[in-house]
């Protein structure tokens, strides 16, 4: 999914230039020429980044930033554009919550580099979205499993088995497919290996949540995660 950037710049030539630079790099660009227009856009869209001129008509830079931070989705990162290059101006805005500051005139490569850095920083700081099924929550990057809100300790193999099933709830996985997905190796008819690890995983899930069945055996085929 392409990331979107809202450009707020009253100079139409600069606004269009920024659109060409960002669109050429694969971003979706929303254009706004005033804060009034930006407000309307932010009511219906949630961009991944805001690139805003410091000096919008009828509003100081400080007022612009206060407006940005007071709107819904105020955690959206903001890069400020300005012809002011004084240290005091930059420090004041960065201390006030701006994520970065680009001085005009700017080079296209600098704009793209700063945009990439801010978006990368935001992605790293965003909380990881869990895979959820009934009372199980799996956090793939953290390799953490919670059942009924309590952390469940699994072996590496058990975690990978559960993660594979959680990514496709209700789908039946053959023992061969599970072996290839988890062990990353060719399948040599080693049903016993898969069965033992699935059995251990089921036992741990049952102990953590006795009232629920999570992994169901499908006779002659393999296993699936029970959705409901």
Automatic annotation (TrEMBL):
Positions of post-translational 4-aspartylphosphate modification: 53
UniProt keyword annotations, A-Z: DNA-binding, Phosphoprotein, Transcription, Transcription regulation, Two-component regulatory system
Domain of life: Bacteria
Start and end residues of each OmpR/PhoB-type domain: 128-227
This protein's record includes keyword Phosphoprotein: yes
Signal sequence, start to end: none
DNA-binding annotation, residue ranges on this chain: 128-227
GO molecular function, one term: transcription cis-regulatory region binding
GO BP terms, alphabetized: regulation of DNA-templated transcription
PANTHER family: REGULATOR OF RPOS (PTHR48111), TWO-COMPONENT RESPONSE REGULATOR ORR33 (PTHR48111:SF1)
Name of this protein: Stage 0 sporulation protein A homolog
Organism of origin: Candidatus Gallimonas intestinigallinarum
